[in-house]
Amino acid sequence: MKWCCALTPVLLAAAALPARAEVLPDVDSRIESVTPRVVAWRRDIHQHPELGNQEVRTAKLVAAHLKRLGFDEVRTGVAHTGVVGVLKGKRPGGVLALRADMDALPIREVTGLPFASKVVVDVNGTPTPVMHACGHDAHTAILMGAAEVLAGMRDRIAGTILFVFQPAEEGVAGQEAGAQLMLKEGAFSPIKPDAIFGLHVEPGRVGEIDARPGPMLSSATGISIKLKGRQTHAGRPWEGTDLVNLSADIVKSLNTIAARQVNVFEYPNVVSIGALRAGNRSNILSGEATLDGTIRTFDLARRDDLKARIRTTVAGLAAGYEAQADVNFEDVALVTGNDPALLDLVMPALKAAAPKGVNTDALMRGAAEDFSFYQAEVPGLYYILGSTPPGIPIEKAPTNHSDSFDIDEAVLPIGVKAHVLTALKFLDSRAK
Ligand SMILES: [Zn+2]
Ligand SMILES: [Zn+2]
């Protein structure tokens, strides 16, 4: 119960922070009045999480809200369940997109919150619990709040704002999904934005925003290695191909590529094998093995170099064992970061939204975001809102994707303010 009642003073305090020069006189009061509903939306969405490409209820909530606000256009069913809203200002100017993701994860929630998820869905015959363990419930509610504030300020808006509510940021195995599919299905057409802004909640000081210039979140590339050889008795390995040993050699050698063969002072990189399957009995050496992993780095030329080195290393090791190796890669996300000029431009707005300041020295993160695909089309801004719940040391706060992940709801009005102020700042710079 402490979550539902004790937060109200904190929320009001955060929403009523003293206006600075960048804050228009009525923005704070508009945010203050929408905050109780942003909290209610977040809790409602949290209690009814939906997996990627299945965000039917959430999308309906979003679309109904945008229509009620009198948006100029509300497109639904983009990339399965995505919603794109168009809000035109009363003055001519540029176009900005604001993006939120709506999907949840296959995790059984153990937060004990009064609005914790009890949802279990069928995934290919397997009962699967679902939880908003990455804070996308907060992102959706925050952007709905920003939509309401900005819809009430059309006189003040120079240009057009696209509100992009996308499904399946976390990806869906075997299905096209997320930002890439949104783009394919015309999220940026016929109105192409000049820039796109997005945010994410993460453990950290509430009131602080992390936004470094240049790369911020890594690229992510899936590695799939399939090995084939001659199956044999584990007591007579010389009569077959020992794919267990070959797999072990591959795992160790791939770590060596990331640590010893490329300049780690230039860009951090990680090559990890997360799944290894080779046989199912102690006394059989299997004729097949598979290894699945991921490449994370902060430069696409570096990513391609790592791919080439992985191919060469696996081929060389497989040849030594007389095994066949098939190596495939799938680019799941590009590098997410901040266009330095764009970050400079909106920095006063971010500072006005972040009572504890903007940390531009924030560390790069090994997490990845499909937001990067939008950034391949138009310049982007991506920042992180510290959101550790009160009473928990930040370093002990359960991370995103933990079954105990939670946020301090005081971050919600901060997110609304960040969206509103950065949007106005950007569009003012493009006013005609
Ligand atoms: Zn996530
Ligand atoms: Zn996320």
UniProtKB/TrEMBL annotation:
Residues 220-318 form the Peptidase M20 dimerisation domain. Keywords: Hydrolase, Signal. It comes from the Bacteria. SUPFAM superfamilies: Bacterial exopeptidase dimerisation domain, Zn-dependent exopeptidases. Pfam families: M20_dimer, Peptidase_M20. Residues 1-21 form the signal peptide. Coiled coil: none annotated. InterPro entries: Amidohydrolase, Bact_exopeptidase_dim_dom, Peptidase_M20, Peptidase_M20_dimer. The keyword Disulfide bond does not apply. This is Amidohydrolase. It comes from Sphingosinicella xenopeptidilytica.
